[in-house]
Write a structure and sequence with these properties.
22% of the residues lie in helices and 41% in strands. The chain has helices at 12-21, 61-68, and strands at 24-30, 35-47, 50-56, 71-76. Strands 3-2-1-4 form a four-stranded antiparallel beta sheet. A hairpin with a 4-residue loop joins strand 1 (24-30) and strand 2. The longest helix has 10 residues, at 12-21.
Length: 81
């Protein structure tokens, strides 16, 4: 089985390119003891050389923990043909 994405670094520009090309991701939150993985829809907005990721999800206790969590990760799901 071949590895579609070998472990390697990508440039910042390539990262933003992949973020712009997709809309489905996961927000991973931890408080040091528990890990929550939240599927999210997201969009990227660009203005004056500044890019921001906007996340759409439902309100609730898990999402509100983003405010208090100091460890957050975000990853995207890329659609392959």
């Amino acid at each position: 089985m071949s590895n579609l994405y070998p472990d390697e670094s990508i440039s910042v520009d390539k990262c933003w390119e992949r973020l712009h090309a997709n809309t489905l991701g996961r927000l991973i939150l931890t408080d040091g003891q528990h890990v929550d993985v939240l599927p999210v829809l997201y969009a990227v907005a660009s203005q004056d050389d500044k890019q921001e990721i906007y996340i759409r999800t439902t309100r609730g206790n898990k999402f509100s923990s983003v405010v208090v969590s100091r460890r957050v990760a975000f990853e995207i799901d890329e659609t392959l043909e």
